[in-house]
Amino acid sequence: MTIRDLVGVIRARWRLIALCVLVVIGATAASTLMTTPVYEATARVYLSTVKPADDKSPGGTYAITQKDLNTYVAILGSPAVQDPLRAELGLAPGTGIDISGTVSELTNVLDLQARSSDPQRAADIANTAGPVLADAAKKFSPLLANNNQVVEAEAITPALAPAEPISPKVKTNLAMALLAGLVIGIGAALLRHVADTKVRGDEDIRKLSDRPILATIPFVKGSDGPVLTLADDPHTHHAEAIRRLRTNILFVDVTTQGHSFVITSSNPGEGKTTTSVNLAIAMADAGSKVLLIDGDLRNPSVARTMGLEGSAGLTTVLLRRAEPADVIQAWRDTSLHVLPAGQIPPNPSELIGSEAMSQLFQKLAQDFDYILIDSPPINPVIDAVLLNQLTHGLIMVVASERTRRRELEAALRSLETVEVPVAGFALNLATGARSAAYRYGTYGYGQTAAVHGSRAAKKSRRSDRRRLSRAR
Question: Three-state DSSP class for 111?
């Protein structure tokens, strides 16, 4: 995966990454707030030995060694220090005291660190621990006892109540949570990207084929049935995308020197029929005489989608029970004509691939400017390949977030096996940023005039103000 691919994954799945970051930061913040703060105070003391004032006996002074200092540090947690320390601080018997020490390597200096949930208590413990330790030192040094000497603790740096706790470290925890959230989020995005088998956008199609993407058709919210936007609401983004598809198909028409196309998909449910109907209406709106044929003789739906009678149609003509003019229906007051599928036959593939079908298509091609055939999906049956032999191009409808890549790849591989090229793709049901390139955003019909009118009004007001100023 290249850096560009990684950036694309992050852009496509930024919501998942943001969710992971928020969850990790939220959990860390909650845990931090629930954690009891710990404050640490440090007192630095100097230990030395002296004889009592009333001791007149001869003898030298005993010097405290590094071994003695290490012994004093070791007994900080013993009852010999803890019990008198509690008594000095007025704490109840058995109250835990967290006190530790660090020995200087060159001098008789001890750093006493005290920890507590109360900052002032931490300072009191550190300041009191020095004298208490000095009193207990004689018990653990026989030479001191024999020489009748005592240990004194002189405070070099008294402990002060700390302003901030050493634990939890809020800023550090939140920074680490942000970093962990990003790592988890990006990892989850990459994992989902690898595990995701659906076609999400144009790039997924381009990885499987070099044929052009003719249009990205947005998803229409709140639609329970077929969406005929070209007829019912021609000023929507969906209608504009269909017109773009019509325009780009005209360029394909120039390269193929043909005026007929098969509209198909890899599997059912990807919107090929709705796309076929809307595309046919758009072509008719451009002034062309268009024929839409329902070539799906297994599951016909064009007549039902357009509200037409579908009991007689293509199969009726192929069985020579009617002439094409008898079953072709004009749709509303347009130049669009529809040839329904008719009754479902037991041998649809044989009928589509028959000589009668070829002759019928040649005859219809002379009567219409454009012919569109709504075909069955490619993966289940071979009908689309047979229909493509009659036409001059195959348009593949791909449903965003519904079509799986392996299914589209299987369909393209089937077409490649029989040397049927795809004229182009129509990415259907696109949502969000995937349809942004084919949307006007906040720009809508009638807004241009309003904007120009507003600008003209402002210009007129400025001119009026200038004239009044000159008149004055």
Answer: strand
Q: With the C-alpha atoms ordered 398, 400, 406, 407, is the resulting torsion angle positive or negative?
A: negative
How many domains does the chain fold into? 3
Q: Is 230 left (phi over 0), alpha (psi -120 to 50) or beta?
A: alpha
Same domain, 152 and 250: no
Q: Which residues on adjacent β-strands are paired with residue 154?
A: 46
Pair 19, 147 in one domain: no
Cα 320 to Cα 360: distance, rounded to the nearest angstrom: 11
343: number of Cβ within 10 Å: 16
Where the chain has pLDDT below 70, the residues are 1, 51-62, 143, 145-148, 222-226, 253-258, 432-472
Contact (Cβ atoms closer than 8 angstroms) between residue 412 and residue 379 = no
Which residues are CB-neighbours of 217 under 8 A, at least 6 positions away? 238, 241, 242, 245, 271, 275, 426, 427, 428, 429, 430, 435, 438
- Taking alpha carbons only, the member of 114, 44, 102 closest to residue 70 is 102
Q: Are residues 48 and 8 in the same domain?
A: no
Quick check: pTM over 0.90? Answer: no
Task: Examine the domain organization and report whether 25 and 44 are in the same domain.
Answer: no
CB proximity list for 316: less than 8 A, separation 6 or greater: 322, 327, 342, 343
CA 118, 124, 125, 126: dihedral to nearest 10 degrees?
110
296 burial level (CB within 10 Å; 0-12, 13-18, 19+): buried
Claim to verify: residue 178 and residue 223 sit in the same structural domain = no
Distance (Å, whole) CA 147 – CA 179: 61
